[in-house]
Design a protein that fits this description.
33% strand, Rossmann fold, Spermidine Synthase, Chain: A, domain 2, 5-stranded antiparallel β-sheet
Length: 275
Amino acid sequence: MALWYYEDYIPHYRLGLEIKETLFLGNSQYQKIQVVVSYLYGKVLLLDDIVQTTEKDEFMYHEMLIHPALLTHPQPEKILIVGGGDGGASREVLKHPVKKVKLVDIDAAVIEVSRKYLPKLGNWNDRRLEVLVEDAVKYLALSDEIYDVIVMDSTDPLPSGTAEPLFSKDFFQSAYDHLSDNGVLVSQIEPPFFQPEREQRHWESLKMFPLVKIYWGLVPTYPGGIWTYMIASKGRDPETSFKKLLFSTRYYTPEIHRAAFVLPPFMQERLSKKL
């Protein structure tokens, strides 16, 4: 008998994966954590029954989350990753000649499970990486460190979830205050089809930045298959002013970077109403 996992993303919309086996199932202080082996995507990490990443297509998400921001900043040295406990975001950041990467995730269990069951996802032994198990809201409020790039790689901002405070205007203001003069902040903002109100909320919350733009990429296992990101810059325009990539990638290219900022009319119309 076939064994299926289903994710009820929104009312009337469900995603399904046929799975071979469950490698881990448990609960941390904050959420349900599960690792399964699927037929199509290999190992899959789920938090509260929502797919976070898969072995087969994680590179598409992580490369598009990281490289546009790191290549926009003229000389990124200190990077803060909020969330990112699976290790994929920090792995991509560490491909750049940065000096220090600080990963702040509230849930130690996510880090531990990812390191054990998805070991190829992260680059945990790089000496430039420091991992802190803390609430990122409290961490920034008490910290006086300044970063060149801040990456928001948290779970979705669900009302009952731990990530909700990370998408507030107060937190984005705190992030802005902890960025250098040419600082860049980047965040995933989910698919463009289903919940445009979240896009609106992000846009409104980032108005302290002089430049805010939306770009997109493909992630087959995420709802709709198209995922959007919001990038905010104190300095350079991420659409037109970005450095040359000096290493090989599996998804990101300079051509895809430029194309990612070309939005379809229905998204342009939404943005024009916000401006």
